[in-house]
Structure formats: structure tokens, C-alpha cells
From TrEMBL:
It comes from Dactylosporangium cerinum. One of its GO terms (molecular function) is ATP binding. Keywords: ATP-binding, Nucleotide-binding. The keyword ATP-binding applies. SMART domains: HTH_XRE (SM00530), TPR (SM00028). InterPro entries: Cro/C1-type_HTH, Lambda_DNA-bd_dom_sf, P-loop_NTPase, TPR-like_helical_dom_sf, TPR_rpt, WH-like_DNA-bd_sf. Gene3D superfamilies: lambda repressor-like DNA-binding domains, P-loop containing nucleotide triphosphate hydrolases, Tetratricopeptide repeat domain, Winged helix-like DNA-binding domain superfamily/Winged helix DNA-binding domain. This is ATP-binding protein. Residues 12-66 form the HTH cro/C1-type domain.
Length: 742
């Protein structure tokens, strides 16, 4: 290794190899976050000396020989991280805007934010993207782009909660907190450690943007909107006007392939285009595709068409053949943000491989934008124009949209079958990582398609699409749309007379509500599912989930009854995995009821029936139930090892919390507190309110026993606030009783 920073990275990699642990497990062992450790190991960040010491201690190595290497690496600084770039491509023919570009760049340097406003089609997004590309070197952590759909035809503006979820997902935070305030705080925290440029395109108003702004740090934000966002404090505006005659002529000439000219016909074309870059490019493309025309002919054609912008758009359509014009009209009714050739093929009912030339023609005419190879979108103005044409001239638009919805459903089902799940241990052939990446890419379009299916009354798609997204939703718990989609899907399944599907969807709805801490609503969903007459397998799952909700509400006898029923049904069905889970949770409830020996027996039976990560639930129950301290710690650490090995972040937090409880009982209070802290570090990015409440109770008790009354009171106050918000009097009573002990 040549430089000190590379030498330090090599030494840290050696420590990881010596540990024999996964990155996440080593981070937990050393009391670090896995994201920080990843940056240390890739050279993106020089660790503080305390982190080097913690890593050395984790493998029993003396850190002192590393001190000189660390000191030199600190002086040299970290290697630049790989740059993320979500920005659309810069326009090859970007023209003019020198003054506006300079103003935007200066405001980004001084204020760290700027809002570009102007009328539709004036080039706000083009200017923002152009400046972002010019300043790429000043923002080494990359450029993020998000369309807020403030004025997108057929779509509601993106709510701040959902927008924050997508921005955090771009930073690889897949389980954001449930609330908008918490997400905004996490977003600001993440940006404070980066130097990134964020482009928030197409904002409807200041209220939509305000929660998305970065806080302290060196990141910056560029906002575009048709409205002037005067109430957005700290974000100075830059207004963009239509082109002056000189810039308009330059852009038209470049788009048309003309040399410099100022004849009268050009002036007439420019007047029809109103100085809007979008219209100028389209008019120029029209002329370029008709080499036999003169500028005067183009001006005459535009003048003879009613409506200035309709004239420009219509002239671009005239250069297309009937099949190309039909696809253009149909694209106006397509839901979602972008699309690929396969979606366009489903829309037009034409094989995708025959659409390549058609799509290329639409791109050349500036009727489509190609965001990346094979990925397309429409400008909002053009989309509205296409939608208007479809409403007037395309009687089969609804049928075309239904084909797209069926296409999305079929693709989702195919990819879902590639993903392993407890119900499907042997998935279909395929690459699970690619399947998940497809869901990540198409998620916005799938939700938009689902909403279109609801509007059209396509109940089959409404009922089946959330089922095809079940595994993806499980891995992305807390996704804002999940409960809404599941409720609508259950209603659609009921209309179709599919009672088993309706019961399964209601069960999933209840599970999502329970994870968010909304237990009363979860139980209501489970009760409706029961009335649908579920088969034994679904009834077993419902009994298990109902038992857990009853447990968390403090109704232990009712919980035990449901968990026993679940255990018996799973045993009858020959489902050892389900039986193991029911036994483990029944053991947990039995322990709380004061029957320790019986709880130990149930937990051991659970572990014996399960394998791999399926043993975690039984091991945690067993570790809390056994009286021998050595066996307790050994069992809980095995549960933690399995959770880390299989990257089960929720279970890791649960295991750390259980270790805190066990160590508290043994009088080892400092290690107990450390495990509680690790549990909450893991919980921070997760939308798991129920697990958070469980951990808060135990953490507060450990703080009380350790003589930390202020910390204990703060944790108990958090429980009271959550309990009131979610309608959970049992948790509020427990917290208030605990306060009385302090």
C-alpha cells in the first residue's frame, strides 16, 4: 500500500478478517454503526481513534501499533467516496441563461439553497440540471433528484412524508421512521455528514418543500416550481423568463440545424413559440425532419393552427406516422413517473421490440425525454396535451391502460416468485437481488398503476398487486402506501367474492398496523378476516398475530388462548416453522404470567422444531426464562448471532434489548445499558413502533436500577406520548406506574 490512508484501510480489513464476523456483526461488537464501519473499510472516512481502539478490542488486538498509521491517515484525509448521481442528463443543446446560471451558482455557494420559478415550459428543470452538472465537482457525495409532481397531469403532488421516504431510500435507508417530523430530522442528519446537491423538481408550494430542506452542513438544494416560493425562508428565488429574441433564435437554429439567421420567417416562428425552450426545440425538430421545407413554410403552418403551443405540439405530431401518433396519445394516460419499452408495448398492444424506432422518433421530436438508456418520461405540458388528445381521439384509451395494469401485475408476480419468504422457502429460478431492484425501480409506477386500477374499477389488479408486493413490503416495512393498498385490495377481493384472498389481505393489513403500534385497528382487521371463514393455514396465522396483539395490549390470558390455538392448528397442518413461533410466543406470555418452568419447556420445544433464523424467537424466550445466568447469556448471544448472520435488523434490536434485560437481572448494569443503546441504534431507521415501545419499557427500568432517574423519566415520557397517540392505555398505565418508583 502506498499512502497512509490505504495502509489504515488494509489494517482495518485485517481486523475484520480476524474477527470472522460480518460487517454488521463486527460493528455491533465494537459499538459502531454499520454504515460508519462500511465507510471506514472502504476508505471513504478516516475513523476517530476511539473507533480504531474499539475495533482492536473486538478481536483482542493491541491498538497502539496502529496509532502512527492512523495519525498519518488523519492528516492525509479520506479518499473521495463513490459519487451517486440520480440527475437526468444535461441537455446537449443547452442555450443561454448565463446570468441565471451565475446567479444560481452564487446562491448555492453562499446560501446553500435556491428556488427557480417560472411558467410551464420555460426551462426551469433544464437550468437546474445544467447547473447541478456544472457543480458536480463541488459536491463529491453526488446529486440526488426527486420529481415532486406538483403539476403532473393525473397525479397528486407528492406528500412530504412520501417524498422523505424516497429521498432517504436514495441514501440506502430502507426503513425510515413512520412520522414526517422524524423522517425530516433523519434526512437533515444524513445530509449534514455529506456534501451532496439535491434537486427537488416541480414543487407545488413552500409547504411541500419545507420539510425536505437540508439543515446544517455543506449539502445544498435546488428547487423548481411554477409558483414563486416567497414564504420559503432561507431559499432565495431566481425567476426564469421566456427567452429573449437572440437566445430564442440561437436555440431554434441549433434544434433545426440552421446557421445564424434573422430573417422575418424566423421571427414569426419565435413569436409562435413564445420564447419557451420546449416549444423552440419542438419547432426546430419539426423543420429538421422536413428538409424540403423552408422556415417560411414552418411559420405558415404554425400560423394556420389555432393556439400557440398546440400549434407547436401539433406540428411535431404531423411528422409522425399513425402508429407513432397513437402511441403518443396513449402515453398521455399512462400512470407513473417514467416507463420502459415493455410498458409502452403493453400500452400500444405491440411487441416491445417493434417499438424501439417509434420511441426514438418521439425522442427526436422532443415529445419524449430519454432519462437513461431505455427509460423515458414526458414533460408535464406535453403529457397534458397527449392526455387531451386521448380524451378526444382515443376511444380505446381505457383498454390500453388496462393492458398496462395487467403488464405491471404480471411482472410483479414473476419477480415476487423469485423472492424467498417463510411461506415460500424454495423460490422460483431467478436472481432475487435483481427482482428486488426491479421493485425498487418500479415502486412509484406500481403505486400509480394501483391507483389507476382503483379509478377504473379493475378489481383483479387491485386485489392481486399488493399480494405480489408482500415480500417487498415485508423488507420495507413502514412504506407509506402499504396500509392504504392493503385496505383497498381487501375491499376489491370482497367485491370479487374471493373470501380467502380477502382474509389474507386483512391479515397482512393487521400485521402492518400492529408493527406501527396501532393495535386496536390491527385487531379489528383480524376480526373481519376471521369472519371471512379462512382455511386452517390462514386461521393459524391469524391466531398467532391476534395473540401477539393481545399480548401487547396487556391481555395475557386472551393472548395465551390465541397462541395455543395457533400452535394446535400449525401442528395439525404439519407446519413446524409456524408451530415453533407459536410455542415461543406462548412461552413468553407464560413467563409473564409467572410460570417460569412451563415457559422454559415451551421455549425448548420451539427451538427444537425450528432451524436457522427460525430459532431466534424461541432462543430469546428461552434466554429470558432460564434461571442459570451462563445459559441465559449463551442462548441470547446465539439468537443475536443468527440475527446478524441473516441480516435481520428487527431481531437484532430485539436480541440486544433482551440481553439488556438479562444483564440487568445479573447486576451487570453498564453492559446492560450498552445493549439497550445498541437496540435503539438499530431501531432508529426502522418504522417499528411496537418494538420501540417494548424496548423503551425495559430501557427505562434498567436506567432506574442503574441510578439514572433523568434518563428513565425521559424514556417513560416517550412511552406516555406514544401510548396517547396510538390509544394504548395499558402502556400508559405501565409507564406511569414505573414513574412512581423513581
Amino acid at each position: 500500500m502506498s499512502g497512509p490512508q490505504e495502509q489504515l484501510v488494509a489494517q482495518l480489513a485485517r481486523i475484520k478478517d480476524l474477527s470472522g464476523l460480518s460487517l454488521r456483526a463486527l460493528a455491533t461488537q465494537a459499538g459502531l454503526s454499520s454504515s460508519s464501519l462500511s465507510r471506514y473499510l472502504t476508505g471513504r472516512l478516516v475513523p476517530p481513534w476511539e473507533a480504531v481502539v474499539a475495533l482492536c478490542k473486538a478481536v483482542g488486538r493491541d491498538p497502539r501499533p496502529l496509532r502512527p498509521v492512523w495519525a498519518e491517515a488523519t492528516k492525509a484525509g479520506a479518499a473521495p467516496p463513490p459519487r451517486r448521481n440520480d440527475l437526468p442528463a444535461d441537455l446537449f443543446d443547452f442555450t443561454g441563461r448565463e446570468a441565471e446560471s451565475a446567479q444560481v451558482e452564487e446562491l448555492l455557494r453562499t446560501a446553500g439553497a435556491v428556488a427557480i420559478d417560472g411558467m410551464a415550459g420555460v426551462g426551469k428543470t433544464s437550468l437546474a440540471v445544467h447547473v447541478a452538472h456544472r457543480l458536480a465537482a463541488a459536491y463529491p457525495d453526488g446529486g440526488l433528484y426527486l420529481d415532486l409532481h406538483g403539476f403532473t397531469p393525473g397525479q397528486e403532488p407528492l406528500e412530504p412524508l412520501a417524498a422523505l421516504g424516497r429521498l432517504l431510500a436514495a441514501l440506502e435507508i430502507t426503513h425510515p421512521p413512520a412520522g414526517a417530523v422524524e423522517r425530516a430530522a433523519l434526512w437533515r442528519s444524513e445530509l449534514s455528514r455529506r456534501r451532496a446537491l439535491v434537486v427537488l423538481d416541480n414543487a407545488v408550494d413552500a409547504e411541500q418543500v419545507r420539510p425536505l430542506l437540508p439543515g446544517a452542513g455543506k449539502s445544498a438544494v435546488l428547487v423548481t416550481s411554477r409558483n414563486r416560493l416567497v414564504s420559503l425562508d432561507g431559499v432565495p428565488p431566481v425567476s426564469v423568463a421566456p427567452f429573449t429574441a437572440g437566445d430564442a433564435a440561437d436555440l431554434f437554429g441549433r434544434a433545426a440545424g440552421l446557421g445564424a439567421t434573422d430573417d422575418q420567417a424566423v421571427g414569426q416562428v419565435l413569436q409562435q413559440c413564445g420564447g419557451l425552450p420546449l416549444a423552440l426545440r419542438m419547432a426546430g425538430a419539426r423543420l429538421r425532419h422536413r428538409p424540403g421545407w423552408t422556415v417560411a413554410v414552418l411559420a405558415e403552418r404554425l400560423r394556420d393552427t389555432a393556439g400557440r403551443f398546440d400549434a407547436v405540439f401539433g406540428m411535431s405530431l404531423h411528422q409522425l406516422d399513425p402508429a407513432q401518433r397513437r402511441l403518443f396519445r396513449l402515453l398521455g394516460v399512462l400512470p407513473g413517473a417514467d416507463f420502459d419499452a415493455a410498458v409502452a408495448g403493453a400500452l400500444a398492444d405491440v411487441p416491445a421490440d417493434r417499438l424501439g424506432a417509434v420511441l426514438d422518433e418521439l425522442v427526436d421530436a422532443h415529445l419524449l425525454q430519454e432519462l437513461s438508456p431505455g427509460r423515458f418520461r414526458m414533460h408535464d405540458l406535453i403529457r397534458q396535451y397527449a392526455a387531451d388528445l386521448a380524451a378526444d381521439e382515443e376511444p380505446q384509451a381505457d383498454a390500453a391502460l388496462r393492458r398496462v395494469l395487467q403488464h405491471y401485475l404480471a411482472q410483479a408476480v414473476t419477480r415476487d416468485r423469485m423472492l424467498p419468504s417463510p411461506q415460500r422457502p424454495q423460490p422460483a429460478a431467478g436472481n432475487p437481488a435483481e427482482a428486488l431492484a426491479w421493485f425498487d425501480l418500479e415502486y412509484v409506477n406500481l403505486v400509480a398503476g394501483f391507483d389507476a386500477a382503483v379509478r377504473l374499477g379493475v378489481d383483479e389488479v387491485v386485489a392481486e398487486l399488493p399480494q405480489a408486493m408482500r415480500v417487498w413490503f415485508f423488507r420495507h416495512r413502514g412504506t407509506d402506501d402499504q396500509t392504504r393498498l392493503l385496505q383497498a385490495a381487501a375491499d376489491a377481493a370482497g367485491r370479487l367474492g374471493r373470501h380467502q384472498e380477502r382474509a389474507a389481505l386483512l391479515s397482512d393489513l393487521g400485521f402492518a398496523l400492529a408493527a406501527a403500534g396501532r393495535l386496536t385497528e390491527a385487531l379489528a382487521a383480524y376480526e373481519v378476516a376471521e369472519r371471512e371463514g379462512p382455511d386452517d393455514e390462514l386461521a393459524a396465522g391469524l391466531a398467532l398475530r391476534t395473540g401477539l396483539a393481545r399480548r401487547d395490549l396487556g391481555d395475557l390470558e386472551a393472548a395465551q388462548e390465541q397462541l395455543r390455538r395457533a400452535r394446535e392448528l400449525f401442528e395439525k397442518l404439519g407446519r413446524p416453522a409456524g408451530q415453533s413461533q407459536a410455542l415461543a410466543f406462548e412461552g413468553w406470555v407464560t413467563l409473564r404470567l409467572g410460570r417460569r418452568a412451563e415457559a422454559v419447556d415451551l421455549a425448548r420445544a420451539s427451538v427444537a422444531l425450528a432451524a436457522g433464523p427460525g430459532q431466534v424467537t424461541g432462543l430469546v424466550t428461552l434466554g429470558l426464562a432460564v434461571e442459570d445466568p451462563a445459559e441465559s447469556l449463551r442462548t441470547l448471544r446465539e439468537a443475536l448471532r443468527l440475527s446478524e448472520e441473516h441480516n435481520l435488523q428487527h431481531n437484532q434490536a430485539w436480541c440486544h434489548n433482551a440481553l439488556g434485560v438479562a444483564l440487568r437481572g445479573m447486576g451487570s448494569l453498564d453492559p446492560a445499558l450498552e445493549h439497550h443503546r445498541r437496540a435503539f441504534a438499530l431501531l432508529e431507521p426502522l418504522a417499528e413502533v411496537q418494538l420501540e415501545i417494548d424496548c423503551l419499557h425495559e430501557y427505562a427500568e434498567t436506567c432506574r436500577v442503574a441510578g439514572r432517574p433523568d434518563e428513565a423519566l425521559a424514556l417513560l415520557d416517550r412511552i406516555v406520548a406514544l401510548a396517547r397517540e396510538l390509544g394504548r392505555p395499558h402502556d400508559e398505565q405501565l409507564a406511569r406506574a414505573a414513574r412512581q418508583k423513581i
